[in-house]
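job 3f2a | input accepted
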Amino acid sequence: MTDGGMHGGRPKVAIVDANTLAVLGLKQILQNVIPVTAIDTFATFGELESGHPEQYAHYFVAMDIVVTNRNFFLEQRRKTIVLTLSLNDTSQLHDFHSLCINQPEPHLIRQLLMLHQHAHHGGRNQPPMPQVLQQKILTDREIEVMSLIAQGFINKEIADQLNISLSTVITHRKNVMDKLGLKSVSALTIYAVMHGYVDINKI
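job 3f2a | predicted structure (203 res):
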C-alpha cells in the first residue's frame, strides 16, 4: 500500500458499481456516515485497477464485479464490502462483509454504521474528526432532543418525555438541524451515533 489508504490524512474509499444511481446514493450516505473520507467511484473493475487500487482503505463493490474478479477481492477481503440486493444469507458471499442496498434508508444507514463501528472497534482506530466537528455546538437540551429524534420518537413523545411544550421541541429540533447543517432525520441519526450520543442498538 502506498499511503495506507489515506489521502491528505483522510481515508480513501472506492465504490465500484455500474449502477450510477446506486453509486451516487451510496456516496452521499457514506459522506454523511464517514465525513472524513475521500470517496472515488468507478463503473468497472478495469477503472479501479488502472487507478492504483492499493490506495483505498475500503472497497464497496457490486456483487457481479466481485464474482468476476474474485481472486483480487479475496486478497483484499478485509477491505471489501459486497453490495447485495437481498438481505437473505443465501444470496451473500460468505468470505466477505455484505451491505444490502435494496432496503429502506434508515436500515441501510444502521447497517453501514454497524459495519463502520465493527471495522474501527468502537472508534479507536478512526482518524480524528475535523476540529469544527469536535466542538460542542449543541446545548444539553438540544442533545437530549436530538438523541430522542434519532431513536425514532415523534415530537409529541419527545415533549412528554422531557416535560416541555410541543413548540419548544419543534424549536430545538430546528436549531439542531440548523447548527449541524443537516437536512434529514437520517443525517441527524448518523451524527448522533457517530458522536456517541445514541447507542446504535437503540435506533
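job 3f2a | Residues 105-119 form the longest helix (15 residues).
job 3f2a | closed
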